[in-house]
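pipeline stage [seq->struct] | target=YjbR protein | organism=Xanthobacter flavus | residues=120
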Amino acid sequence: MAVDAARVREMALALPEASEAPHVDRRAFRTPRKIFATLGPSGLDLNLMFDPDLRDFYCEQVPDAFAPVPGGWGRMGATRCDLTLVDAATLASALQAAHRLAAPKAKSKPKRRTASESES
């Protein structure tokens, strides 16, 4: 049932454009745009950078493993995951959800004007 720190790192770094770097006393997993998760120094907890809706979803679905981070970060959506109580499939889903929120936004291509629009 538990997921160890090595498995968390493997799962997080398998996501597109994910990298790892130090972040205060934790290890941060990030996209080129921003951090999507941080692993605690003990390797027993992971903070996921969710929005409030995702925070509520995971906290309701698996309340033993997920809880809002105390304070302002939690109010914004940051969610603590107890790695001793979460299964790999649920954690993979949570990491993917946090990663999607942190992924670079796709640039929209400028709309090409047709000849008839140019003549207007």
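stage status: PASS
auto-comment: The two ends are 65 Å apart (CA to CA). DSSP finds five helices and six strands in the chain.
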